[in-house]
Design a protein that fits this description.
The chain is α+β, with helices and mostly antiparallel strands. The chain has helices at 17-20, 40-52, 59-82, 90-111, 118-132, 151-162, 167-174, 178-181, 199-202, 238-264, and strands at 29-33, 36-39, 139-148, 186-190, 216-218, 221-232.
């Protein structure tokens, strides 16, 4: 990738039926499945959680929860019978899923006192609006790339493109960056500041439809860059982008929270 690396928080992989069913088992038995009992207490716990999330306690809700517990139990039993957790990387996936859930619980608690307000979104919009008016950010560039391992490979690609070989075909065949490579090298519309140096400086002086005539080195490899198009950038009205900006702020604050914990942690490598 030629985009700057951005840390991303973990995402949920899966939920364990066995873990979900680890409720206090008390009160009347509502159902028995192959000898395993589902108790009133289990339904009550699920109802309490649903009510806390805005649902209304009702016979229909309780029946739906009981049905859900039944499904989870039969799946759990089948997992035990087939030994599914011992196959492939399923044990690791289960552990990661638990960690992901803990992360989301922590972030939910974190945001209870740090909610994104409309004023926050408006202020960020105004910041981006002013930023877009700076001359260096007044244009967007449609960029394509081919990334290879060596300078010699990049030079050969430049030679082939100059001789008439299609850039898109070479990107699909040779690029080590598989996402853009699969699309003929297309990265998309970007601002220069979104690109890794020195590509960010080169792109503004590259003619439309042209490729770099010398290989470009980054920490990821050697690149041949093509500029497909250029367009003026006009910031959309606030109403059109406020939801996107709000989501960006949430992700930004999530990352800031995680970075703070990592910074404060005492990390010792090795023994």
């Amino acid at each position: 990738m030629i985009f700057k690396t951005i840390l991303r928080s973990l995402t949920a992989l899966a939920l364990s039926s066995a873990a979900v069913l680890a409720y206090a088992q008390s009160g009347p038995v509502l159902m028995t499945i192959n000898g395993s009992k589902i108790y009133t207490s289990q339904v009550n716990e699920m109802v309490s959680m649903a009510v806390a999330n805005g649902a209304k306690d009702s016979p229909e809700l309780r029946q739906n929860i009981l049905n859900d517990l039944m499904v989870r139990e039969v799946i759990t039993q089948d997992i035990k019978k087939t030994g599914l957790l011992n196959k492939d990387n399923n044990t690791l996936k289960l552990k990661l899923a638990q960690q992901n859930t803990m992360l989301e619980l922590w972030l939910t608690e974190y945001f209870k006192t740090r909610q994104i307000t409309e004023a926050d979104v408006k202020a960020e919009y105004e910041r981006q609006l002013a930023f877009s008016k700076e001359p260096k950010n007044s244009k967007q560039y449609e960029v394509a790339q081919i990334m290879v391992a060596t300078e010699a490979e990049a030079q050969e690609i430049i030679k082939q493109v100059n001789s008439g070989t299609k850039f898109e075909a070479l990107a699909k065949e040779k690029s080590l960056e598989k996402v853009s490579g699969a699309q003929g090298g297309v990265v998309g519309w970007v601002f220069p500041y979104q690109l890794t140096p020195p590509i960010n400086d080169l792109i503004v002086n590259l003619g439309k439809g042209k490729i770099t005539q010398s290989p470009v080195k980054t920490n990821n490899g050697w690149h041949v860059i093509k500029l497909d198009d250029v367009r003026p950038f006009v910031m959309p009205p606030f109403e059109q982008v406020q939801n996107t900006i709000a989501q960006e702020l949430v992700q930004q604050r999530r990352q800031e929270a995680i970075n703070t914990l990592v910074k404060e942690a005492k990390v010792v490598k090795g023994n």
